[in-house]
Amino acid sequence: MNQINPIYLGLFLVVVLFLSVFKLDSQRISLNEERQNLKVTQKLVNELVALKDVYANKIKIKKELQRILNNPVLKASEIVKFFTNSSVKINSKSMDFNALNKLMGKILNASYNITSLKIKRLSDTKVSLSMVIKW
């Protein structure tokens, strides 16, 4: 009378097998979701690294701005540039439209973090400019 019926033992093993398969399947689904999250995170990290390379290279930005501001068309505009550790401030009290067009064409077509830009019309051919670019 103390013996366990083999049918009960077989049913118990089948139930344990079904529970194990169910748990394994749910863990497989969870693993696939985590893989998808990892791919999204890696893509975001790659984009952030690329943006950091473009915007955070202080030496490259300084050299490019020096090259742009030393353009002969901009020499007559009396542009005052002030470099700090994290930004450059560009000011001109009197600049003609051609020089402004040349400067803005060069700066806006490159990747700079412009935090402040003020252009004020002084006359039909002259404007004043104030700009801050951070890196």
Reported for the largest beta sheet, the result is: 4 strands, antiparallel
Output the strand order for the largest sheet.
1-2-4-3
Radius of gyration over C-alpha positions, nearest whole angstrom: 33 Å
Q: How many strands in all?
A: 4
Tally of alpha and pi helices: 4
Count of separate structural domains: 2
Shape: rod-shaped
What does this entry show, briefly?
Helix content is 58%, strand content 24%. It has 135 residues and is an alpha+beta fold.
Question: What do these coordinates show?
Answer:
- The protein is built from 4 helices and 4 strands, in the order αααββαββ.
- With 135 residues, the chain is an alpha+beta fold.
- The chain folds into 2 domains: 1-55; 58-134.
- The chain has a 4-stranded antiparallel sheet with strand order 1-2-4-3.
- It starts with 5 loop residues before the first helix and ends with a strand.
Please render the helix and strand layout as text.
Elements: H1 6-55, H2 58-69, H3 72-75, E1 80-83, E2 87-96, H4 97-108, E3 113-121, E4 126-134
Antiparallel strand pairs: 1-2, 2-4, 3-4
Features:
135 residues, 58% helix, four-stranded antiparallel β-sheet, 24% strand, alpha+beta, rod-shaped
